[in-house]
Hints:
With 433 residues, the chain is of the alpha/beta class.
Amino acid sequence: MTDFFKGIPAVKYEGPDSDNDYAFRHYNPDEVVMGKPMKDHLRFAAAYWHSFAWPGGDPFGGQTFERPWFGDTLADAKLKADVAFEMFQILGVPYYCFHDADVRPEGADFAENTRNLEAIVDYFGEKMDETGIKLLWGTANLFSHRRFMSGAATNPDPDVFAFSAATIKTCMDATIKLGGENYVLWGGREGYETLLNTDMGRERQQAGRMLQMVVDYKHKMGFEGAILIEPKPQEPTKHQYDYDVATVYGFLKDFGLEGEVQVNIEQGHAILAGHSFEHELALARELGIFGSIDMNRNDYQSGWDTDQFPNNVPEMALAYYEVLRAGGFKTGGTNFDAKLRRQSLDAEDLILAHVGGMDACAAGFKAAAAMLEDGKLEAARDARYAGWQTEAGTGLLDSDLSAIHDRVVAEGINPEPRSGKQERLENLINRYL
């Protein structure tokens, strides 16, 4: 045991009337909702990078956090792992997620990176056996190091493509060895700053071929988890090839991968793309590529991905409503891709941020489940489209312009608009909150 979280108790459910900061008011992991425990619905995961690797910097200022594990040795990395698994146990989260660069020291070359990663993976295995904590997903950091400044798969230098492909293989191997349930690809630099020096067609082909290689390796290794792409718009590059769910789906169709790859959708990214979180979730559900979520929020007065812990229960309710409509998580879950504010320096801040986020998600989830079980929202939606279930409606899409024209003329069809009842439905949603 370390002393980083010294004096902080394990967080338990105490109910909505509790005044204990270190207690859940809404998240009761064993409460059965829609036939199974809430912990199995929500499948919470903590993000290794924001919680233990981020130093507290921003575009105008450097490190504010001073952590005893900040360093470049394997001993530092193992101390970081000790602290991380202590936090997972305090919170009772069943999962965690990581990038390779979060957990290992940066080596002088690829070989040293691999040795360092393998050493930490072995250490993680021991910690997971001791605690029962599982890996929701692993991924490769192909964006922070200067070698990736022009992308990884989309880089104009084939050596960077090769280095990236080799890194992905080692990270997939690590994920498989640790029993990870998914593998995520986030193209943090897969885009361009200017078209003046960019061959967009070539870059898309490179990215598509890399993804095909990932899928081929999944099958070669017998990995039963999901391959996930995380959509992200114009940050940090001007344009990114994985802008949103619709863009990712078009990319998957282009390379014959729509049946092989799903999406890991982040709330903050959805907002930056000009969508709502529930829009991206609903579209992924309709397209059959919904996989997992990264849960956070943005500051709506800022045009940046601020990665704050979620606290908006109505937003969470609408999000989990779409998750439930998609059949819930299979291999995916709720990963807190969220970080402290750079002024929140204390160990207790890290715990309490997760407590608040987990409670907000739980409250939103229970509201979503009540909405779905009650059925009033779905009934209103069905009523709005009821005309398409009539004999005339069901045959309309199989007809042609001439036949439809003749029918409109013969029957004197002259439709009047009908209310969408948005305000009434918004009032209905508020009843569950």
